[in-house]
């Protein structure tokens, strides 16, 4: 990431003593915690921040909160897709600033904060089960479900539903990472009838589907959903076909963000959707000729296009280039979402904002 | 405490349960009132020496009543409401005496759930001594119940008052919703809607079109009642709802139960009226007391939510030779989706379907959703 390279020196200048005294690297801690299969980025971020507290020699609340904010900044800039870990960072920092305390001893307070963070992370690991229990009530016997990409909470829900009901699942391939195949393999291994469909075949399959079930990267203040790219188009098609679109989100993924369009997402950058530059500019003489050629006959232009004959050298587009040019996540408007299942209950998309306002407003 | 089959309140509970089961008591407000009266007896007669026992007793009774008639949702709602109120009373009564400090219990999970912590006022709390409230007193196990019962009875009285004044409170602002020379469409015979329309008639001169609401034809009663109150009334067959909709300014419906997603169960025909209204962009408002708020999400997924009326109304026995040749079904309720409803007019303000969820959170405790 270019932004990362430009950012880091600034940090080391502003906090030189930090670098020298303790070699604690929050990003490394974050990566280490994430190695746990069950850990999700927001929780790993919270745990990484507790380690910041542990390693910080801050003597006042102000310094501590600053250290946490710096840590969160580093994480944000070094991770390619910071949205969900941001939600965790914000939650923990808000909690730290708001924790009512009457501590005479700052060390005790720090210890208490670390304990709270760890306790929450442990507790939050049970949330997926809670959500699965909740969502299974909405799955009728014999349901055909469409899901997108791979999500642990969706997996858990589907596996739980499979124990009690007959379900079958369509899963999108979810290019470019192809995580849908991972979902399909796991579901098939568990004995759930499952079929991988192309991302472009969602509209084709929608009539056969009872409802759509997706996980989430974050749920934002409007009640909209940020999830693996493709979720938005599935939601639009589901809406057009009058099928319910359910999102599953642990409450630590509620994120105080209010994107109005895809391009407001923090993950959007100038590389995404950039047009490929022509390798060499057209010679001015050809510019005038080309339109005449094309208008001549379709066959002629076909020949022109074939490699070797035309003035343009053949262009190869690699998968990597396509990946670079494309977003990882997209934003789904709240009016396309039927319900958000979370550990705090089944919410209408509007219901999510109530929790965010409770935590961050005022 | 195991459910006490010989408890002094047992008989009243059994009587109500069997009446509910036999459909001798129907209608959401009636069942809510009856449930409340039984619960009042239960609370006054029950023996308990700590709060958990009391909650357990009420839950057990609630469970029996809900099991007796799961389709009358207001039974369960009343039980939940009562539980919520007695918890509140208990908390105010014990505040100051309990040792648990709120600070020690604060955690991130709580923060997510309840939002920012309240400003600490505990230090300024009056050191009012409520030492009389002692749970699990070994010498006098009834002392807790004796000292708590008066406040509990008051709390129950509050719930009762709310139920008794529900029609007045819903129709309080009727004249703000209905304007002069408007044409209103309604159907069925909802007491709430009836009171609402009649109250509006005190101030406004307007016209009501009542669909007769086959097969119960309750609309006919409604039309009679309204016209005898001096409202200009038309009675029309259900089949003309769509045709008339272009002339209608507003559709006013009653509800049987309001669900957590903002949808509702209402008399059959409501779905037709609401869909027709949507096609003409006519506003649909629903008049209902808040005791109809039901904290359930997935009712509309389950066929058990369907309630069937008497098939005799559709195909009478005079058609005897046909009866064994056709299946006659007479579903009683329609499920109306939240998207089709513009507003709920309740006894406590007007709300869009999207905020029903929040009302539920305020009215009931989460732990009571499953009785």
TrEMBL record, chain A:
Keyword Cytoplasm annotated: yes
Signal peptide: none
Subcellular location as annotated: Cytoplasm, Cytosol
CC per GO annotation: cytosol; eukaryotic translation initiation factor 2B complex
Molecular function as annotated in GO: guanyl-nucleotide exchange factor activity; transferase activity; translation initiation factor activity
Domain of life of the organism encoding this protein: Eukaryota
UniProt xrefs under InterPro entries: eIF2B_alpha/beta/delta (IPR051501), elF-2B_alpha_N (IPR042528), IF-2B-related (IPR000649), IF_2B-like_C (IPR042529), NagB/RpiA_transferase-like (IPR037171)
Entry keywords, A to Z: Cytoplasm, Initiation factor, Protein biosynthesis, Transferase
Location of region: Disordered: 283-315
Primary location class: cytoplasm
Pfam families with a match to the protein in the record: IF-2B (PF01008)
Record bears the keyword Transferase: yes
Subunit structure: Component of the translation initiation factor 2B (eIF2B) complex which is a heterodecamer of two sets of five different subunits: alpha, beta, gamma, delta and epsilon. Subunits alpha, beta and delta comprise a regulatory subcomplex and subunits epsilon and gamma comprise a catalytic subcomplex. Within the complex, the hexameric regulatory complex resides at the center, with the two heterodimeric catalytic subcomplexes bound on opposite sides.
Similarity comment text for this entry: Belongs to the eIF-2B alpha/beta/delta subunits family.
Protein name in UniProt: Translation initiation factor eIF2B subunit alpha
From TrEMBL, chain B:
Protein location: Cytoplasm, Cytosol
The protein's assembly and partners: Component of the translation initiation factor 2B (eIF2B) complex which is a heterodecamer of two sets of five different subunits: alpha, beta, gamma, delta and epsilon. Subunits alpha, beta and delta comprise a regulatory subcomplex and subunits epsilon and gamma comprise a catalytic subcomplex. Within the complex, the hexameric regulatory complex resides at the center, with the two heterodimeric catalytic subcomplexes bound on opposite sides.
Keywords: Cytoplasm, Initiation factor, Protein biosynthesis, Transferase
One term under GO cellular component: cytosol
Protein name: Translation initiation factor eIF2B subunit beta
Domain of life, source organism: Eukaryota
GO terms for MF: guanyl-nucleotide exchange factor activity; transferase activity; translation initiation factor activity
Xref: Pfam families: IF-2B
Keyword Protein biosynthesis set for record: yes
Stored InterPro entries: eIF2B_beta_subunit, IF-2B-related, IF_2B-like_C, NagB/RpiA_transferase-like
Keyword Cytoplasm among UniProt keywords: yes
Database matches in SUPFAM superfamilies: NagB/RpiA/CoA transferase-like
Family designation: Belongs to the eIF-2B alpha/beta/delta subunits family.
Main location: cytoplasm
């Amino acid at each position: 990431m270019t932004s990362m390279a430009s950012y880091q020196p600034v940090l080391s200048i502003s906090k030189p003593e930090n670098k020298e005294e303790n070699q604690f690297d929050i990003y490394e801690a974050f990566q280490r915690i994430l190695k746990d299969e069950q850990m999700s980025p927001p929780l790993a971020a919270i745990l990484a921040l507790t380690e910041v507290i542990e390693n910080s020699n801050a003597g006042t609340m102000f310094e501590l909160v600053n250290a946490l904010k710096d840590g969160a900044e580093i994480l944000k800039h070094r991770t390619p897709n910071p949205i969900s870990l941001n939600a965790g960072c914000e939650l923990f920092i808000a909690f730290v600033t708001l924790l009512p305390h009457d501590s005479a001893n700052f060390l005790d307070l720090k210890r208490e904060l670390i304990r709270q963070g760890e306790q929450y992370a442990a507790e939050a690991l049970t949330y997926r089960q809670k959500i699965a229990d909740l969502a299974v009530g909405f799955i009728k016997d014999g349901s055909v479900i469409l899901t997108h990409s791979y999500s642990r909470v969706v997996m858990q829900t589907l596996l739980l539903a499979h124990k009690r009901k007959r379900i079958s699942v369509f899963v999108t391939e979810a290019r470019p990472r192809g995580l849908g195949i991972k979902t399909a393999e796991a579901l098939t291994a568990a004995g759930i009838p499952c079929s991988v469909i192309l991302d472009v075949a969602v509209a084709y399959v929608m009539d056969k589907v009872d409802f759509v079930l997706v996980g989430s990267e974050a749920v934002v203040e409007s009640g909209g959903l940020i999830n693996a790219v493709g979720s938005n188009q599935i939601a639009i098609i589901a809406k057009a076909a009058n099928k319910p679109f359910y999102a599953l989100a642990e409450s630590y993924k509620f994120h105080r963000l209010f994107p109005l369009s895809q391009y407001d997402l923090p993950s959007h950058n100038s590389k995404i959707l950039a047009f490929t530059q022509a390798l060499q500019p057209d010679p001015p003489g050809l510019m005038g000729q080309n339109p005449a050629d094309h208008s001549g006959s379709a066959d002629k232009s076909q020949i022109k296009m074939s490699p070797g004959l035309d003035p343009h050298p053949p262009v190869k587009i690699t998968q990597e280039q396509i990946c670079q040019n494309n977003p990882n996540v997209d934003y789904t408007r709240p009016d396309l979402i039927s319900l958000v299942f979370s550990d705090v209950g089944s919410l209408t998309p509007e219901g999510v904002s109530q929790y965010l306002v409770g935590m961050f407003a005022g | 405490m195991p459910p006490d089959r010989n408890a002094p309140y047992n008989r009243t509970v059994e009587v109500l349960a069997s009446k509910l089961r036999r459909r001798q008591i129907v209608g959401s407000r009636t069942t809510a009132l009856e449930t409340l009266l039984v619960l009042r007896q239960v609370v006054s007669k029950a023996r308990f020496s700590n709060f958990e026992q009391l909650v357990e007793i009420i839950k057990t009774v609630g469970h029996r009543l809900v099991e007796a008639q799961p389709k009358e949702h207001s039974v369960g709602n009343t039980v939940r409401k009562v539980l919520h109120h007695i918890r509140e009373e208990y908390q105010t009564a014990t505040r100051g005496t309990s040792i648990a400090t709120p600070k020690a219990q604060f955690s991130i999970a709580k923060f997510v759930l309840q939002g920012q912590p309240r400003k600490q006022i505990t230090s300024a709390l009056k050191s009012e001594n409520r030492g009389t409230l002692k749970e699990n007193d070994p010498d006098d196990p009834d002392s807790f119940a004796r000292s708590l019962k008066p406040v509990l009875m008051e709390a129950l009285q509050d719930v009762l008052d709310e139920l008794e004044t529900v029609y007045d409170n819903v129709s309080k602002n009727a004249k703000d919703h209905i304007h002069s020379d408007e044409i209103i469409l309604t159907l069925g015979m909802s007491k709430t809607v009836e009171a609402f329309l009649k109250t509006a008639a005190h101030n406004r001169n307007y016209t009501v079109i009542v669909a007769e609401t086959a097969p119960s034809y309750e609309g006919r009663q409604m039309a009679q009642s309204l016209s005898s109150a001096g409202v200009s009334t038309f009675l029309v067959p259900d089949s003309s709802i769509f045709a008339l909709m272009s002339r209608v300014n507003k559709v006013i419906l009653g509800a049987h139960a309001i669900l957590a997603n903002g949808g509702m169960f209402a008399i059959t025909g409501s779905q037709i009226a609401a869909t027709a209204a949507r096609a003409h962009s006519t506003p649909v408002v629903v008049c209902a007391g808040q005791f109809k708020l039901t904290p359930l999400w997935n009712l509309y997924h389950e066929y058990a939510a369907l309630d069937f009326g008497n098939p005799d109304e559709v195909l009478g026995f005079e058609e005897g030779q046909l009866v064994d040749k056709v299946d006659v079904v007479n579903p009683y309720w329609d499920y109306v989706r939240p998207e089709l409803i513009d507003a709920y007019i309740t006894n406590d303000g007007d709300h869009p379907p999207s905020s029903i969820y929040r009302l539920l959170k305020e009215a009931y405790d989460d732990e009571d959703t499953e009785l």
